[in-house]
Design goal:
2% of the residues lie in helices and 53% in strands. By secondary structure, the chain is mostly beta strands. Strand 15 and strand 16 form a beta hairpin. It is flat, with a radius of gyration of 21 Å.
């Protein structure tokens, strides 16, 4: 058990409403009249839903201990996505619903999986913030199309659909933000 007023911080995982939530943002408020309270924004680690909640000062919260472990993405089949633990080389599989933006998973990519420390169950699978991909298909660009900020659709090597500038061609390597799918640059 922990107290909200002194122990709450960003990234802390707590048990709330029979689910596990990560603290995304918090603000300690001490009004001129009345008791202090902590205004929080919590994100469910099981379904990604974000909720706002206000805890009174001194309210007891249950902290959930989580561990980050490095895994490598191997392949996808009918069973789901398969990963290998980088420390002990054990393999595990995850359902596609557990992985946000799974269209950006590339074979050999290093990812982190957040585990519930006591129950040994995976909670969140985190991809790197950005990664490089080869453009598998896009309409050809025309000479002089770099003056505007117009974008066109492109298919990456992982079959993910993104929007890229007009000067990108098939075979180019592009840097993509794996959280939003935005184009960040070219190599």
């Amino acid at each position: 058990m922990a107290s909200t007023s002194s122990d709450i911080k960003k990234g802390l995982c707590i048990e709330y409403n029979n689910d596990i939530y990560a603290v995304v943002d918090f603000q300690h408020v001490k009004p001129g009249k009345g008791a202090a309270f902590v205004r929080t924004k919590l994100k469910s680690v099981t379904n990604g839903k974000v909720v706002d909640n206000t805890f009174p000062s001194g309210h007891k919260i249950t902290v959930v201990r989580v561990e980050r472990r490095k895994f490598q993405y191997l392949y996808k089949d009918d069973m789901g996505f398969h990963f290998m633990n980088n420390e002990n080389y054990e393999q595990t599989s995850m359902a596609p619903e557990m992985i946000e933006n799974n269209q950006f998973l590339k074979e050999g990519m290093d990812i982190e999986i957040l585990f519930h420390a006591e129950k040994e169950i995976p909670l969140i699978i985190e991809l790197p913030m950005s990664a490089f991909y080869e453009v598998k298909y896009t309409e050809p660009g025309l000479k002089g199309d770099t003056a505007t900020n117009t974008q066109k659709p492109a298919t990456l090597e992982t079959d993910a659909e993104v929007r890229v500038p007009l000067f990108i061609n098939i075979g180019d390597k592009v840097k993509i933000d794996t959280r939003t799918g935005d184009y960040l640059g070219r190599t």
